[in-house]
Design brief:
Elements lengths: L4 E5 L2 H4 L18 H4 L2 H6 L1 H14 L7 H12 L4 E5 L5 H4 L6 E2 L2 E8 L9 E3 L18 E5 L9 H9 L3 E5 L11 H7 L3 E6 L11 E4 L2 H26 L4
Parallel strand pairs: 1-2, 1-7, 2-3, 7-8, 8-9
Antiparallel strand pairs: 4-5, 4-6
Bound molecules: ligand BJW.
C-alpha cells in the first residue's frame, strides 16, 4: 500500500540559507520584543513599526536561496509514490524557490498582504515582493486596511482543517528544524502518533516535543535530510525501518 508522508518544517530548515531562527537567548525577535511585532495588539499600537519589520524580511527574500534541505523535500514530493503533504511554519518562500508546490503556510507568507478583517476589511489577499505602501487600497473593497499576511500570536493558524485531515491519515510524520514550543504546530506529532504514524525529527538538538518522536536525527538539516531522502527514495520503508531502529528515542 502507498504510504502517506506529512512533513512539518520550521525556522531551522531556513537557517543554513541565512534566515535567523526565532528563538534566541536574548528572547528578542531581530531586536524587537515579540509582543511589539508579532501580536494584533502590537500592530494596533504601532502599525508603522510592524510594517517596517516585515518589509525588511520581505526585501531580504530577494537575497536568500534554498539550501539542500529545501531541495531534498522537493525531490521527495516529486518522486514519492504515496501521498505527500508539506506544512511549513515559515513565512519565507524558500520551499517555493526550491520548486515545491502546494505548500501549506500555516503561519502566513511574507509575500502576501491581507485586507484586515478585524478592522472591517474584506480578507482579500494580494501578492507583493515590495515594501508595503501604507496608502495602498485593497483592490477588492477599496479600503486602506492591508496588513502583512502573517499569523500573529492569538490568531488562528491557516488551513487547520486540511492539516488535520492529512495528519489523520499519515503513515510517517517528519518534523524538521522546529523548537516544538509554538502551538498548534507543536501538537501535530501527537496527532500523527495517535493516527498510527511513525514519527521522526530532524534538528540540531532534541526539541521540546522529543518525547513524542520515535527517532531523532541531529545535525544541520542541509546535511542530514538529503541523505535521508536519498535512502527513502531508494529503499522505501525498509530504509525507514533501519533509520528508526538506529536513531530510536524510545
Ligand atoms: C536547526 C538548524 C539546522 C537551527 N538544521 N535544525 C500557553 C500554552 C500553550 C499554547 C499557548 C499558550 N499561550 C498561548 C498559546 C498559543 C500560542 C503559543 O503556542 N504560544 C507559545 C509561545 C506558548 N500560539 C498561538 O497563538 C497560535 N495561534 C493559536 O494557537 O490559535 C488558536 C487560538 C486563537 C485564538 C484564541 C484561542 C485559540 C499562533 C502562533 C503564531 C506564530 N507566529 C510566528 C511568527 C511569524 C512571523 C514573525 O513575527 O516573525 O511564527 S511565531 C514564530 O514561532 C514563527 C514560527 O513559525 C514559530 C515557530 O518557531 P520555529 O519554527 O520552531 O523556530 P524556533 O526559532 O523556535 O526554532 C528553530 C529550531 O530549529 C530550533 O529547535 C533549532 O535547534 C533548530 N535549528 N538550525 C536543523 N541547520
Amino acid at each position: 500500500m502507498e504510504k502517506n508522508i506529512v512533513v512539518l518544517t520550521g525556522a531551522g530548515i531556513s537557517a543554513e540559507s541565512g534566515i535567523p531562527v526565532f528563538r534566541s537567548e536574548t528572547g528578542l525577535w531581530e531586536n524587537h520584543r515579540v509582543e511589539d511585532v508579532c501580536t494584533p495588539q502590537g500592530y494596533q499600537r504601532d502599525p508603522e513599526l510592524v510594517r517596517k519589520f516585515y518589509d525588511g524580511m520581505r526585501l531580504n527574500l530577494r537575497k536568500v536561496r534554498p539550501n539542500p534541505a529545501h531541495l531534498a523535500l522537493t525531490r521527495l514530493a516529486e518522486n514519492w509514490k504515496g501521498g505527500f503533504t508539506l506544512v511549513t511554519q515559515n513565512i519565507d518562500n524558500l520551499h517555493e524557490q526550491a520548486g515545491s508546490r502546494n505548500v501549506i503556510h500555516m503561519h502566513g507568507e511574507l509575500t502576501k498582504l491581507r485586507c484586515y478583517e478585524a478592522l472591517g476589511g474584506c480578507g482579500h489577499v494580494v501578492e507583493t515582493m515590495a515594501a508595503q505602501d501604507p496608502d495602498e487600497a485593497c483592490p477588492q473593497c477599496g479600503k486602506k486596511l492591508l496588513r502583512p499576511h502573517i499569523v500573529w500570536f492569538g490568531e488562528m493558524p491557516l488551513d487547520m482543517d486540511l492539516i488535520n485531515e492529512r495528519l489523520a491519515v499519515a503513515d510517517l510524520f517528519i518534523s524538521i528544524g522546529t523548537s516544538g514550543v509554538v502551538y498548534p504546530a507543536a501538537g501535530f506529532v501527537r496527532i500523527a502518533r495517535q493516527a498510527g504514524a511513525a514519527t521522526l525529527e530532524f534538528n540540531l538538538e532534541p526539541s521540546a516535543t522529543k518525547g513524542y518522536f520515535d527517532a531523532g536525527i541531529y545535525g544541520p538539516a542541509g546535511k542530514t535530510l538529503p541523505n535521508f531522502v536519498d535512502g527513502l527514495l531508494r529503499d522505501g520503508y525498509d530504509y525507514l525501518r533501519g533509520i528508526l531502529r538506529e536513531n530510536s528515542l524510545l
